[in-house]
Write a structure and sequence with these properties.
By secondary structure, the chain is an alpha/beta fold. The protein has 9 helices and 16 strands. It binds pyridoxal-5'-phosphate.
Length: 360
């Protein structure tokens, strides 16, 4: 066995997908996009998700969608395209999220050249201040230009919240999205198929059926993988929080003081360390570091183990009275930023477990 490795329980992930999709259906969300950007293009996991009932596979990087090109679900590029990648976006994504007329022009030209029709989800910024059209008087002219482009199709509108500004989705701002839908539909006598009301932070509105009627699409990542909504960070009952478990190997176990000896300058990351003196400590060093995950994003699963610090290639733990020895393996749960870093680290092996992965 080689370490560090990230175990991915595909049975638990499938349970989460089934549970999420059935909750979505009950709330009128007929299109649920599986947001795979945390997977760094992992094909067996994406394949499982493509088979569970999601409407689309959505990712922020075109490189990941290229890996999924043989999976049958429509692919969505979540991050606004770069003009310089318009050609690849049209080739490998069926739909992209957009807010810039110049980019729409580049996509239209690329689609014309490839003899394709590319779908557009037009994004509206309802106050979180990341992507999207903001001023309410500009969008009808943007829609008009888009409808004049021969190789683009307006698939719908969407908004993204709780990403930069931490603004929650509520009846009021999602209501604004529905007003925008009404104005576009009546100004141009068309029907917008997708009204995409956000990400995992919108799920809390399911309680008490508060998601406004007419929102028919969500784009879900974190809740699917970690079983928690992201408006308040609460666990979602019935979903598994432990699809992913990190395993790392101890390369040193020694009793040492807990407080460094000598004159203190900076650590290897340029910070002045703040370290508590806890007297003598059984310290373990794991072969894993900040280039694989930040210490703050890892949660020891072995009772009695506590993380004390990390440098780029070493994670230091307080072993307390845990009888671990060099060569042993410790286990950690991860949060979403930790998962992203681990999945993108070339040094961490990804191992799928469970019956659901038999074809992976
Ligand atoms: C990341 C992302 C999502 C998914 O967010 P989660 O909080 O992981 O559900 C949805 N939409 C866009 C545009 C994103 O960038």
């Amino acid at each position: 066995m080689r370490y560090p490795r990230l175990k991915i329980d595909l049975d638990k992930l499938r349970d989460n997908a089934v549970r999420l999709l059935s909750a979505c259906r009950e709330e009128g969300i007929t299109s649920c996009m599986a947001v795979t950007k945390v997977l760094a293009g992992n094909l067996p996991v994406a394949r499982l998700l493509a088979e569970t009932g999601f409407s689309h596979l959505a990712d922020s990087r075109i490189e990941n969608l290229i890996r999924y090109r043989n999976l049958s679900l429509p692919k969505v590029l979540l991050r606004l395209p770069m003009i310089s990648e318009a050609d690849r976006v049209v080739r490998y994504a069926d739909v992209s999220l957009n807010s810039e007329p110049a980019t729409l022009g580049a996509l239209d030209a690329a689609a014309a050249q490839q003899g394709k029709i590319h779908g557009v989800l037009l994004m509206f910024d309802l106050g979180d201040l990341r992507e999207g059209l903001f001023f309410q008087n500009e969008y009808l002219s943007v829609v008009e230009r888009l409808l004049g482009m021969t190789h683009l199709r307006l698939e719908g509108i969407g908004t993204n919240l709780t990403c930069y500004g931490g603004i929650l989705p509520e009846e009021k701002n999602l209501g604004t999205l529905l007003e925008i839908r009404d104005r576009i539909e009546s100004a141009f006598s068309l029907r917008l198929p997708l009204i995409s009301g956000g990400n995992s932070s919108s799920l809390y509105l399911f309680e008490g059926h508060r998601i406004p009627k007419g929102i028919n699409c969500l784009r879900i990542g974190e809740a699917l993988f970690l079983g928690r909504e992201t408006a308040f960070g609460h666990a979602i009952p019935g979903m598994n929080p432990d699809v992913f478990v990190l395993e790392a190997e101890l390369i040193e176990c020694r009793e040492k003081p807990s407080f460094p000896i000598g004159t203190m300058g900076m650590n290897s990351f340029g910070d002045r360390p703040r370290i508590e003196d806890r007297g003598l400590m059984r310290r373990g060093i794991l072969a894993l570091g900040r280039q694989d995950a930040e210490a703050a994003d890892l949660f020891p699963l072995d009772p009695g183990v506590r993380i004390v610090g990390a440098s780029s290639d070493h994670l230091i733990v307080d072993l307390g009275t845990v009888p671990a020895k060099v060569g042993d393996v410790l286990r950690f749960g991860v949060d979403y930023p930790g998962l992203l870093r681990l999945m993108t680290s070339a040094y961490v092996r990804k191992v799928c477990t469970g019956k659901s992965g038999s074809r992976g």
